[in-house]
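subagent[fold] <- orchestrator: predict structure for attached chain, return tokens only, no commentary.
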Amino acid sequence: MALEITKASGMYMWDAEGKKILDLIAGISVCNVGHSHPAVVNAIKEQAEQYMHLLVYGELIQTPQVGFATLLTQHLPPSLNSVYFTNSGAEAVEGAMKLAKRYTGRSEILAFERSYHGSTQGAMSIMGDEAWRNAYRPLLPDIQHLDYNSPAAVELITDRTACIILETVQAEAGVQVPDKEWLQAIRDKCTATGTLMVLDEIQCGLGRNGTLWAFEQAGVVPDILLLGKALGGGMPMGAFIADKEIMWVLTNNPVLGHMTTFGGHPVICAAGMAGFKVLLEEQLVDQVKAKGELFHQYLKHPAIKAIRSLGLMMAVEFESFAINKKVIDRCIDKGVLTDWFLFAPECLRIAPPLIISKEEIRHACDIILQAIEEVVNG
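subagent[fold] -> orchestrator:
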């Protein structure tokens, strides 16, 4: 797109020529509380004046780390009580893979087709697309890729499986929402076999799907939860979260079983904590379902084959990528930013900041419908 953005605030961005652009993708689900939320900006300034980087993670007690970890665990199930902050979602994935192998003493990892977990070599090893994986082989061994939402996948969890890792909602596949019963069956089989269930909520967590955590809607609790994207309030951050009993295996044999220099950086923890408090205090999550339903209400057109969504994560499916790309380009020309999905290029992405208003939803839908009409009939 090569858009030169010089300012961003709330729901909007401005390019170098002063054009105002409504943001429907939130930096790929990063800016859940909008761009440059005043509370986040103030937290960054205040913490930067106190101290920034001090010493490698874990050597010194740093109030922003402890405060944010405490706040997160207060809003998670009791078994998710130990937080390891990282610099990104991909690093959270890497940490979880190591933790699962170390805790179980097993090597097999089960993952899913059309999944996306990051671009580092470990995360790429479990990415669900051979065209992407093949360019960088050899990758990690002992990994199987299964069909998402398939009952057959449950049967492949055995007592040699270290973990099964999956997105609670598959994002880059074009918002694929699994059956609750399937997730519950995976949970039960993991418990029976001593396998760790790892849920990747890097893109769908922190309110985007209408509950603070997407797994709440399925009535399951993972052994390891992966967070990223919106976690830092607009700053780069990830985390893997588990029970202390599981996490503590990283403290011995070797003594530093997992290390990071900048993970849990105090300024970023301050920003993330401020953003998380905004989610809670402004009750943004409670509004997500109704806002998502408005998009469904307004987006009616014969060229739309389907709309898949959970909350404010939405895929609008067209006949082809060619049509979708033209619609996206016209939307941008008209001042609405959207894009497509990595493994579903025929789908238009809608994942706006959760602060989007009803009026902005109506305006965005009007623009999308105008763009569709011009592409299909223009």
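orchestrator: received. Logging for downstream: The chain has a mean pLDDT of 97. The CA atoms of residues 230 and 266 lie 17 Å apart.
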